[in-house]
Amino acid sequence: MTSYYIPQPKPEAKSRVRDESAAKLFRRATLESLRPDDELTDQMIRVGTKIYRLHSAITATQSGFFSRNHEAILQKNRIGQPFIVDDMNVTEDLFDRIVSWFYSARGFASADDFKALIALYKAASDLDVDVLLLRILEVVAADENGSKFPGGDAENILELLNLAYKELCPRPEPYPDDFPHTKSFYSSIINLCDRLCDRFLKTIPVSALIDLEVLDDDDIDWRLRAYLRERLDDATILVKDR
Question: Residue 179 CB: number of other CB atoms within 10 A?
Answer without folding.
Answer: 13
